[in-house]
């Protein structure tokens, strides 16, 4: 089994030219095919990729030597002669996904065949733009790696999701941990010793959902991450849309409301001020101060300590106030979605993030608002679904992005 830096070289084109570069390109095509069909014979690979059988055989043998694929055994072929089937080696290498939330972190390990293995969810953490918070993030990642049943050397890359503005090409974060001129990805990479990539949390969740969730044949899909804030992942013609600088999807900061509520971005009237987890908590506290009752308060919980998770759990246990406030949030989200439908005319909208855990308490008022505010001729073609992956969407997205970055199959 080759070491991590040697596996990187298998897909690194920078130091090659001529025949070597062409061979690496062909290996990528073989890898991509096996990534899709799970296993194939030499003849099938040769035919599918239009490569001669001798050349295909040579490249497959080199990939076996690289430890990336293996002979799965023989199966009966149409000609009566048994053919060897080749596929990826699951434990050849691994990829780590780190999904950073406002108050906790989810981490998972993906193997080479895209199976999500070891996971650790809801590790306590407070996301703040401070050196201490960054240090804690790095400590949590290191601790997770040290407890893994696989060697660190077999982890080729780490994908980290953060909210806010992320340039996933340069590795810079413009919302959190921007204390030094060096890219945040490089800083974390030096601290941990594994190649590191950054991605916006909503876009990573969308990528996970696009690859492993509700999508089957749809090519134009919107993924809306409704958490403490609101984010958007966009799939256009089957490809994730990033925008010129990688900052697409700032759905939550559309100046939607004529209010005096200052958003965390510094502007007033953003969609997030009336249609997010933060607005839900604010409205809950205001209602309690006005004399409304809730099971959360009856449990002697201090209103200032109420979290989004508390409200979601109470709603799912039929707390009337929480359900009513969720309906208001759902209505406001639906108004925003109506705008997106009128602009994008998508086949599917997926509601994900923490608030999607409330199910129809969020989806139904959102659907009603969509019908009310969008063009009927347009919205009849748009499905509205809840995320199937839930918390796993972010982990999977981070792992898959890290995997694709290393293997250059984006």
In terms of topology, how is this protein built?
Layout lengths: L3 H8 L6 H20 L1 E3 H8 L3 H14 L2 E8 L5 E7 L5 E7 L3 E8 L4 E9 L6 H16 L8 E8 L3 E2 L4 E2 L10 H9 L3 E5 H12 L8 E6 L3 E7 L2 E2 L36 H13 L5 H4 L9 H9 L3 H25 L3 E5 L7 H14 L2 H4 L3 E4 L5 H16 L3
Parallel strand pairs: 4-7, 7-10, 11-14, 14-15
Antiparallel strand pairs: 1-3, 2-3, 4-5, 5-6, 8-9, 11-12, 12-13
Helix pairs in contact: 3-4, 7-14, 8-11, 10-11, 11-12
Question: How is this structure best described in words?
Answer:
By secondary structure, the chain is an alpha/beta fold. It has three domains: 4-91, Winged helix-like DNA-binding domain superfamily/Winged helix DNA-binding domain (Arc Repressor Mutant, subunit A), CATH 1.10.10; 93-205 and 394-407, ATPase, nucleotide binding domain (Nucleotidyltransferase, domain 5, 2-Layer Sandwich), CATH 3.30.420; 216-387, ATPase, nucleotide binding domain (Nucleotidyltransferase, domain 5, 2-Layer Sandwich), CATH 3.30.420. 42% of the residues lie in helices and 20% in strands. The chain has helices at residues 4-11, 18-37, 42-49, 53-66, 131-146, 184-192, 201-212, 277-289, 295-298, 308-316, 320-344, 360-373, 376-379, 392-407, and strands at 39-41, 69-76, 82-88, 94-100, 104-111, 116-124, 155-162, 166-167, 172-173, 196-200, 221-226, 230-236, 239-240, 348-352, 383-386. A five-stranded mixed sheet has the order 6-5-4-7-10. A five-stranded mixed sheet has the order 13-12-11-14-15, covered by helices on one side. Strands 1-3-2 form a three-stranded antiparallel sheet. A hairpin with a 5-residue loop joins strand 2 (69-76) and strand 3 (82-88). Helix 7 (201-212) packs across helix 14 (392-407), helix 8 (277-289) packs antiparallel against helix 11 and helix 10 (308-316) crosses helix 11 (320-344). It starts with a helix and ends with a helix. 40% of the residues are buried.
């Amino acid at each position: 089994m080759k070491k991590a830096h040697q596996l990187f070289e298998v897909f690194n084109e920078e130091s090659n030219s001529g025949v070597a570069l062409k061979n690496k390109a062909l290996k990528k095509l073989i890898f991509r095919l096996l990534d899709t069909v799970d296993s194939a014979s030499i003849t099938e690979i040769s035919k599918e990729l239009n490569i001669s059988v001798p050349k295909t055989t040579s490249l497959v043998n080199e990939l076996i030597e690289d430890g990336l694929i293996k002979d799965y055994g023989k199966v009966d072929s149409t000609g009566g002669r048994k053919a060897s089937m080749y596929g990826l080696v699951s434990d050849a290498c691994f990829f780590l996904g780190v999904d950073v939330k406002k108050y906790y972190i989810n981490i998972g390990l993906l193997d080479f065949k895209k199976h999500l293995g070891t996971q650790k969810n809801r590790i306590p953490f407070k996301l703040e733009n401070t050196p201490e918070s960054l240090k804690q993030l790095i400590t949590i990642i290191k601790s997770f790696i040290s407890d893994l049943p696989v060697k660190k050397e077999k982890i080729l890359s780490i994908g980290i999701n953060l909210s806010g503005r992320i340039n996933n090409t340069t590795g810079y974060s413009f919302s959190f941990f921007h204390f030094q001129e060096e890219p945040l990805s490089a800083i974390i990479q030096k601290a941990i010793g594994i190649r590191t990539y950054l991605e916006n949390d909503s876009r990573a969740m969308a990528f996970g959902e696009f690859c492993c969730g509700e999508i089957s044949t749809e090519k134009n899909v919107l993924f809306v991450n409704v958490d403490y804030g609101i984010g958007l992942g966009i799939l256009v013609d089957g490809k994730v849309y990033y925008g010129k600088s990688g900052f697409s999807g700032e759905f939550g900061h559309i100046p939607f409301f004529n209010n005096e509520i200052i958003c965390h971005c510094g502007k007033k009237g953003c969609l997030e001020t009336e249609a997010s987890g933060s607005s839900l908590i604010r409205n809950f506290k205001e209602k309690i101060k006005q004399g409304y009752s809730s099971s959360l308060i009856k449990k002697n919980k201090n209103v200032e300590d109420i979290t989004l998770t508390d409200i979601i759990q109470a709603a799912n246990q039929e707390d009337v106030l929480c359900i009513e406030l969720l309906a208001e949030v759902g209505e406001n989200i639906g108004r925003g979605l109506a705008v997106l439908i009128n602009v994008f005319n998508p086949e599917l909208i997926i509601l994900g993030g923490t608030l999607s855990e409330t199910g129809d308490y969020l989806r139904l008022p959102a659907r009603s608002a969509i019908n009310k505010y969008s063009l009927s001729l347009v919205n009849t073609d748009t499905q509205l679904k809840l995320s199937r992956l839930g918390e796993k969407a972010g982990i999977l997205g981070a792992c898959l992005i890290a995997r694709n970055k290393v293997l250059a199959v984006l």
